[in-house]
Write a structure and sequence with these properties.
The chain has 10 helices and no strands. By secondary structure, it is mainly α.
Length: about 300
Amino acid sequence: MKVPAIPGRDSLAILRGRETRGRGAGRRRLAEQPLGFWLAAIWLAALVFFVLFAPVLGFLADPDGYSRNVLQGVGRSHWFGTDELGRDMFARVIWGGRLSLLIAAIAVAVGILVGGLMGLLAGFFGGWVDTALSAVINILLSLPALILALFIVTVLEQNTRNVIIAVTILAARAVARIVRAQTLRFREREFVTAARCMGARTSRLLFREVLPNLVPIVVAFTFLGLGLVIVGEGGLSFIGKSVPSPAITWGGILAVAKGKLADAPHLTIYPAIVMFCTLMAVNYIGDTLMRRFDVRQSLI
């Protein structure tokens, strides 16, 4: 006896097969990432663990705790040694990372929202909208990053909020240029033209057709933006224009220790290594994702 066919069974099987193949392809692409990508991811994961759980980890809970061991080198009790006041340098580097990464995260998030919106509108509408917004973007890009951030902090006031504003502008101007260039590519693609011919509204074209294609590119830029902001805040700290004391950032630690490089090099070397490895990790991951999504051509 022939079993009657169930409507939709074949279609469901095809869809399930495609879903299975899609998951398999995703796992293959994940496994194809170079070793450096995984080393960078492991470094960032370990750093985030220490940064998030520092308040509940006994040996990291008090970055201002004093001991009798002044300017002690690397040892079992003090992994990065101690400073001139006997404070544990490893704890200070971790707590400095808390504020440095927090500033970077806020600046990149707001920069993506503001710069991304500017680039999306400029690239999609063109005309006078593109002319006006591109003029703002180009003016900001023409100014050296450190000079621009220094000007903003000096004119406003030297505090955490204004430092975040300064480095946010550095992130926003970069993401605006990338998003504008990518929007120019996508607005002429077939799926956008088809949706426009079917009578889709401008809001749908922007947020349902173009924007979803920009998300992977923005995610890739997020890592590069983190490195950009960390360097920007570090540069401000080095010239004494970043977050005021007693707040701790990586740049602030290096700025204080630069005068003791000959007598106590561990005060500079180990914080610099942590900052360098973090910048290398975020830039490597961001550059790998940029190449995968072919964003480089938008910067030419």
